[in-house]
Specification:
309 residues; alpha/beta; Rossmann fold; 16% strand
Length: 309
């Protein structure tokens, strides 16, 4: 049997064991997303293991895997360059949609001189982001629903959103709101977990099981394909240019194993946070393994998107 399928079967069995003893985090409302991230933030496990960035890392050469935290910072710089945000002058206003605890926002403010506002649905993420941000940075945080942004039309020079889309129940509204608050000629940069285009190749039984778990374990209502979210952006009345995409699956794929290995590299974290943190970390491993399998076998893709307002 193919080694990838052996790993997949082990992961699915592990899932059933976990589901027997722990409640899943199936999407119900935006409130369920907020609750999930409040819990993850208060646990401090992800922050202690992975640093200030929750998103994946960018690897130029998979044979030379670098520090996971360094790869996450590299990802930010690569997306800035690819999207054109680096063309904006210092002092430009940039909105970070789905900012987490502010890792990307702080890089955008400190390294590029942008005036950054980060928004997230989680009150605890806002609180923690503020705690981690130096007062000297032009970087602030607010709790806000990405599908109902409390900003004026054209208020920002740049829009940044990384791995937030899978949590959005209305992908068109998500696209419309980001483009609405982007000024004409401004730059939009989005990166997301996407399923392959399931209308072109329907999932088999195993793939359906995997997708179900990937949705239910991390509070995702649905995944867009790269093509479908490109259409969401292109169909918006606020878009000002052709929407361009790319697939960064190869560059980000090592992140899944690296995220697990961080636990082995930093075992003292579990002693400092208590034994319950070890169980909570093990709870995530099957999902991470399934993500690795799904991205490695073409069921999932890491899409990046750019356009102008």
């Amino acid at each position: 049997m193919n080694q990838n399928y052996i790993i997949l079967i082990i992961s699915i069995i592990s899932f059933f064991i976990i589901l027997w003893i722990a409640k899943n985090r199936k999407f119900e409302t935006t409130g369920s997303v907020s609750d999930a991230y409040d819990t993850w933030t208060n646990d401090r496990i992800l922050e202690k293991l992975w640093g200030e960035h929750i998103h994946l890392g960018y690897y130029h050469n998979q044979k030379k895997l670098g520090d996971f935290r360094e790869a996450k910072a590299t990802f930010v710089h690569e997306l800035v360059k690819w999207s054109g945000l680096d063309k904006l002058p210092k002092g430009s206003r940039v909105l970070d949609v789905g900012c987490g605890i502010g890792g990307s926002s702080r890089i955008l403010a400190e390294d590029y001189g942008f005036n950054v506002i980060g928004i997230t649905i989680s009150a605890e993420q806002v609180k923690r982001a503020r705690e981690l941000t130096k007062s000297s940075l032009n970087c602030t945080f607010q709790q806000m629903d990405a599908m109902n942004l409390k900003f004026e039309d054209g208020e920002f020079d740049g829009i940044w959103s990384v791995e937030a889309g899978p949590h959005m129940p209305d992908k068109q509204k998500y696209a419309d709101e980001m483009l609405r608050v982007l000024r004409p000629g401004g730059y939009l940069a989005v990166a997301d977990w996407n399923s392959r285009d399931l209308t072109l190749k329907a999932p088999n039984i195993i793939e359906k099981m995997v997708l179900k778990q990937l949705l239910e374990q991390w509070a995702h209502p649905s995944f867009s394909s790269i093509n479908s979210f490109q259409k969401n952006l292109s169909n918006s009345s606020f878009v000002g240019s052709q929407v361009e995409t790319d697939d960064w699956t190869k560059e980000t794929l090592p992140s899944w194993w690296e995220s697990i290995l961080e636990g082995a590299r930093r075992p003292k974290i579990f002693l400092s946070l208590g034994l319950s943190s070890l169980f909570k970390s093990f709870r995530e491993i099957p999902t991470i393994l399934l993500m690795n399998w799904a991205f490695g076998n073409g069921l999932m893709q890491f899409g990046v998107f750019r356009c102008r307002g």
